[in-house]
Write a structure and sequence with these properties.
By secondary structure, the chain is an all-alpha fold. It has helices at residues 3-28, 51-69, 80-99, 107-123, 134-155, 161-177, 183-204, 213-230, 243-247, 249-264, 277-283, 288-309, 314-337; strands at residues 34-35, 47-48. It starts with a helix and ends in a 7-residue tail after the last helix.
């Protein structure tokens, strides 16, 4: 059977399982796992925090379906085990954090569990391989995974924002990974895409609204980080691996902006505050849907540049990266100058 048929299987199984699971979860454990209004949370009534549960169920179901219906050469899908085991640790961490709200888990516990999830990836060969010193590779892999996991968690500040970013990133990863031999990246990315697409209507719904929760936002960040490490970028250019920075351009720019904004005000960068680019734009009169759409367009453009980096000469790679991150710096400076009452 052609590989693309299994790609369709991966998308459809994850989407259907997520669609089926979310209403059942809402009627079952939904009343025990609620996000209540208060602080930065402006919703009027408590909302079930089950998005991560539905996405996790859809993702695992799809990957198991692929695993037991394919007959690829031995070891082809070996790395999926690292993604499933590491993703399970991050999902449980986020779910535990959701249950302990509003206090949540301490930072040290989250870092410990994120480190354990990173070890699962490294054990199955999913890590940075650019540097000759393995310990530098281990350290940078840990920083990459932890940074992106928390970057996506920070993006979960408006309905659909974190999920649409994950969908764009999975599309970018799929197109870049298609020519390579790392087909497990395509299966996992498409499974994640299907689950996110199935969850999104619930997130935007008024009557049947469901939030992503920390279990979902952390899981999305971890999976995107892991898949970025697994993709073969350098089919043409030796500098192609830098495309990963553009695939996750918006989450990286956002966490950098939030951290800088908090430090400027003397706030702890690890504690919640309204210093988010999305919240500043909303305070300036933008609607939530406009913000989500603009962020998605920016991410699509960055992913297109990421694809270009994999086939460009080193000189053009430098030009693209400098242009992209200087643009982010200019936009960040503009937002910092547009101080609002909401962000003070």
């Amino acid at each position: 059977m052609a590989t693309f048929v299994f790609y369709l299987l991966s998308v459809s199984v994850s989407a259907l399982c997520t669609l089926a699971a979310l209403p059942l979860l809402a009627r079952g454990v939904g009343k025990h796992l609620l996000d209540k209004p208060g602080g930065l949370k402006k919703h009027a009534t408590p909302v079930p925090v089950l998005g991560g549960c539905g996405i996790f169920i859809g993702l695992v179901a799809a990957l198991l379906a692929v695993r037991f219906t394919t007959q690829f050469p031995s070891g082809t899908l070996h790395s999926l085990r690292g993604i499933i085991w590491g993703g399970s640790i991050i999902f449980i961490m986020g779910l535990w954090d959701d249950f302990k709200k509003p206090k949540g888990l301490p930072v040290w516990a989250k870092l410990l569990l994120q480190a354990a999830a990173t070890v699962c990836l490294v054990k199955y060969g999913i890590m940075i391989h650019v540097f000759p010193c393995v310990w530098i590779s281990y350290l940078l892999t840990f920083l990459w995974v932890v940074g992106l996991t928390n970057a996506f968690n920070l993006l979960d500040i408006l309905d659909g924002l974190c999920t649409t970013q994950a969908m764009v990133c999975t599309l970018g990863l799929t197109f870049i990974a298609l020519p390579s031999e790392f087909i497990y990246v395509n299966f996992a990315a498409l499974a994640l895409l299907g689950a996110c697409a199935a969850f999104l209507p619930f997130n935007f719904s008024v009557r049947h609204k469901i939030f992503l929760g920390d279990s979902g936002s952390n899981l999305l960040g971890f999976l995107i980080a892991a898949l970025c490490l697994g993709t073969g970028y350098s089919m043409v250019s030796d500098w192609g691996f830098l495309a990963a920075l553009l695939i996750v351009y918006v989450p990286i720019a956002d966490i950098a902006f939030v951290t800088l904004a908090r430090l400027i005000k003397g706030r702890n960068p690890l504690k919640g505050s309204p210093d988010h680019a999305a919240l500043r734009l909303r305070a300036m009169g933008w609607t939530s849907r406009q913000i989500v759409c603009v962020f998605a367009v920016l991410s699509l453009a960055a992913n297109a540049l990421g694809f270009a980096v994999t086939v460009c000469s080193p000189g053009w790679v430098v030009v693209i990266l400098l242009t992209a991150f200087l643009s982010a710096g200019v936009a960040g400076y503009w937002l910092l100058k547009k101080e609002s009452d909401y962000a003070r």
